[in-house]
Amino acid sequence: MKISIASYSFHGLTGQGMMDIFGYLETVKYRYRLDAADVWSGTLAAGLTVPAYEAEHLKRVKEALDERELVVANYHVDGVHVWEDDPAKREHNYREALAHLAAGAFLGAQTMRIDMGGAGDTFTDEQLAFVAGRYREYAQFAADHGFTVGPETHWGPSLNPATQQAVYDAVNHPGYGVLLHIGHWIEGHEEAGDAMAAPWANHTHVDARITRTCLEKKVRLLLDAGYDGYWGVEHHSAQREYAEVEWQLAAVKRCVGRVASDM
How far apart, in whole angstroms, are the C-alpha atoms of residue 238 and residue 240? Predict the structure, then answer.
């Protein structure tokens, strides 16, 4: 069963200086007995005075992954989103994104998330063309290195199903996929958004609300769409994170196993 825990689930501990990337890898391997890491860039950078993609740091992380026989199901990167109104900020994010893409390739990431950026819930034609062009470039790099890349249903225009559809159609590349944060769309579009994006999903984030309220329905939706990626447990409260994650993980494992056996 493909299950992972997004390292953002421990952002409270990370913010207190109580977890870094090496503590996270130890946790998922030996506390939760998983075979995959689901790495947030904030965890990768925790405690560093150099960028998270610094070569020596990445070498140590890769060694830690290999020692624990962990694969990287997903690498989700904050702060390198594609669209910014300021051209200088767009260029800065582009250069940072390239460095993180190289880091993902080095760590053997199977999927990566780079946000769309922007404000509101739509793009102009100019913005859409720019965003799609960047993702096409990133998708080609990903395909050349054995993984897929794309946005999350996360914030800004990426929460609008129509925008996600327009970008997906414009990119039109096998190296492109969407990290489906299940049920996370602009209000009133949650069901249609999940159904639309399920066939494109390269990774998932399953939060506590979905786990409590409609997990089985969402698991069936994705499996019916042919989803074969990891089920990424993501917790957000920053409270009692070890216990809360343990509950979510058990619920997701139980549900996925039961639904898959029925199909």
Answer: 7
DSSP-assigned letters across all residues of the chain: --EEEBGGGGHHHHHTT---HHHHHHIIIIIS--SEEEEEHHHHHTT-SS-TT-HHHHHHHHHHHHHTT-EEEEEEESS--SB-SSHHHHHHHHHHHHHHHHHHHHHT-SEEEE--B-STT---HHHHHHHHHHHHHHHHHHHHTT-EEE-BS-SGGGG-HHHHHHHHHHH--TTB-EEEETT-SSTT-HHHHHHHHGGGEEEEEE-HHHHHHTHHHHHHHHHHTT--S-EEE---S-SSHHHHHHHHHHHHHHHHHHHHHH-
For residue 263, what pLDDT is reported? 78
- At 92-107, the pLDDT tens digits run 999 999 999 999 999 9
Relative orientation angle of helices 161-171 and 125-144, to the nearest 10 degrees: 60
- Quote the CA–CA distance of 68 and 45 in Å, as a whole number: 20
Q: Give ∠ CA 244-248-249 in degrees, rounded to 5.
A: 115
Give me the torsion for CA of 43, 47, 53, 55, rounded to 10°.
Answer: -130
Q: What is the pLDDT of residues 189-248, one digit of tens each?
A: 999 999 999 999 999 999 999 999 999 999 999 999 999 999 999 999 999 999 999 999
Q: What is the DSSP secondary-structure string of 119-164?
A: STT---HHHHHHHHHHHHHHHHHHHHTT-EEE-BS-SGGGG-HHHH
Q: What is the pLDDT of residues 114-126, one digit of tens each?
A: 999 999 999 999 9
